[in-house]
Design goal:
Number of helices: 12
CATH class of the largest domain: Alpha Beta
Oligomer: single chain
Radius of gyration: 19 Å
Number of domains: 2
CATH superfamily of the largest domain: Vaccinia Virus protein VP39
Order of helices and strands: HHEEHHEHEHEEEEHEHHEHHEEEHE
Shape: globular
Number of strands: 14
Helix content: 25-40%
Strand order of the largest sheet: 5-4-3-9-10-14-11
Structural class: alpha/beta
Length: 302
């Protein structure tokens, strides 16, 4: 279904309509991330789902989604509203022939972007544990005819096994491995430890990681990879709120990063540049009591 009839009006012909649509998208996405709004609309979420997967074209990519929140996210990417400078950084650092890991791949926007950049001699490993997101990830890989992407239906952690994943129906980018006390359903998913998943001679160049507070566990499970890949770059979400609810402090996470040999930097979206930081700076930037106080870290192995 081209762009989706219900969502056709997002794509406007004149600047005024485009700006109004962008404003509407921002407001709607913010509401979807507001807990009281999510709780109030939870009974209606399934009825808002389109009958068929909706196709959204972003640059040269074909991306399918089938829930309101994921469709909105795709349009935010389409209009360069969501993480636009981070996308530019990714395009700059990923080169032909590289091996890239997308941890928390969701439906695969960054996955297909990375696959284009690494080319036929490179590879992208996309980790996504939740079945519905994973199915769309696979569909989006096929829609763009990539054969250099390896999708993996597992959560990345500090050990291989199984864990509970607590689902958010209103925002399918907000599944978590800890109970949020907000009446979420949970499913059992497989976990993997990257040091076990990859052979000792596997070279890794870039890791993108956004896994809702589980980043600390993922780092613990890739210590050997970090030690043997001296020029490794990791782009990781830093959310003290989510880390705390996962059982770890912001200080623990940042100290682990430093002890693993990384230069501590973050992506300043407003100034559109990468800036050096100290643990104290980053903790002051992000209130551990606010869900959407977070930054993306840019970590270089030094």
């Amino acid at each position: 279904m081209e762009e989706g009839r219900f969502f056709q009006w997002f794509v406007a012909d004149n600047d005024l309509e485009k700006n109004l649509n962008k404003f509407f998208l921002r407001v709607l996405f913010a509401l979807l991330n507001f807990r009281l709004f999510r709780l109030a609309t939870k009974p209606f979420v399934k009825s808002l789902r389109p009958i068929k997967d909706i196709l959204v074209k972003i640059e040269n990519y074909k991306m399918y989604a089938n829930t309101l929140d994921r469709i909105i996210v795709l349009y935010l990417w389409k209009f360069s509203i969501l993480e636009s400078y981070e996308s530019r950084i990714i395009k700059k650092i990923i080169k032909k022939g590289m091996i890239v890991l997308d941890i928390g791949a969701n439906i695969g926007y960054y996955t297909v972007q990375a696959a284009t950049l690494v080319g036929s001699k490179g590879k992208v490993f996309a980790f996504e544990p939740e079945l519905e997101n994973y199915s769309l990830l696979v569909k989006n890989i096929k829609a763009n005819s990539y054969n250099n992407i390896i999708p993996v239906q597992k959560a990345v952690s500090d050990k291989a096994g199984k864990t509970n994943l607590f689902l958010c129906e209103e925002n399918r980018g907000d599944h978590r491995i800890f109970d949020s006390d907000d009446d979420r359903n949970s499913i059992e998913v497989e976990t993997t430890r990257l040091d076990d998943f990859f052979p000792d001679n596997e070279h890794i160049d870039v890791i993108k990681m956004d896994i809702q507070g589980s980043e600390y566990l993922a780092l613990l499970g890739m210590e050997r990879i970090i030690k043997r890949n001296k020029r490794l770059i990791i782009i990781s979400e830093f959310s003290p709120y989510l880390l705390k609810r996962c059982g770890f402090s912001a200080e623990q996470f940042l100290n682990l990063i430093i002890n693993l040999g990384f230069k501590l930097q973050y992506i300043n979206e407003k100034k559109r540049r990468i800036e050096s930081a100290t643990p104290d700076n980053l903790i002051k930037m992000c209130d551990e009591n606010k869900l959407y106080d977070y930054v993306s870290l840019y970590l270089e192995n030094i």
